Amino acid sequence: MTYTLGLTGGIATGKSTVTHFFRQHDIPVVDADVIAREVVEPGTDGLAEIVKTFGTEILLEDGSLNRKKLGEIIFKDDDKREMLNQILHQEIHQKMMMAKEKWESERVPLIVFDIPLLYEAEYQNTFDAIMVVYVPEKTQIARLMERDELTVQQARDRIASQLPIEEKKAHADIVIDNSQTIADTYEQVQNWLIEQFETFK
């Protein structure tokens, strides 16, 4: 029986540190961000559906998606943003489930689904457990300012576009505190693996 783990966090909480650990241990990671890019490549049903909804003006000359143009359209219109989200959600979900079936057929003990907006997209009941990579909001703001060279207000605005990290933490089955060292974070993940799967000892 394959165990499915939904992995999420907030902006700059260090989720990629945890996915790196899983990959180092040859645990398959299904990355929702990668899938989100794949489902709108030229020739895909996702891109065809977006063109049908928004028109050919959102295409570049080579037939690929003009992300900037599409961004301008949905930024000004909540209804259109919701229409886009519905198209993408359906396509992303389908590809994630295909990946799940593939790994299950290979009888792997664990599949990790890396989904930044897991709670926002209401995936919390899709997996056996949800792991949240957590840092306090103060640390989140400081890391985001340093990483993306933002002002305090810009960092706060970006963080405010997602569900608060404290709320994600409250709903999590497993919380990985990433506010200390990478070694400390790795140890927490390792301990969970040992507890859940004795073979990882």
UniProtKB/TrEMBL annotation:
Role description: Catalyzes the phosphorylation of the 3'-hydroxyl group of dephosphocoenzyme A to form coenzyme A.
PROSITE patterns linked to this entry: DPCK
GO BP annotations, alphabetical order: coenzyme A biosynthetic process
Family the UniProt entry places it in: Belongs to the CoaE family.
Keywords: ATP-binding, Coenzyme A biosynthesis, Cytoplasm, Kinase, Nucleotide-binding, Transferase
InterPro entries membership: Depp_CoAkinase (IPR001977), P-loop_NTPase (IPR027417)
GO cellular component: cytoplasm
Organism, scientific name: Vagococcus lutrae LBD1
Annotated catalysed reactions: 3'-dephospho-CoA + ATP = ADP + CoA + H(+)
Protein's gene: coaE
Name of the protein this chain belongs to: Dephospho-CoA kinase
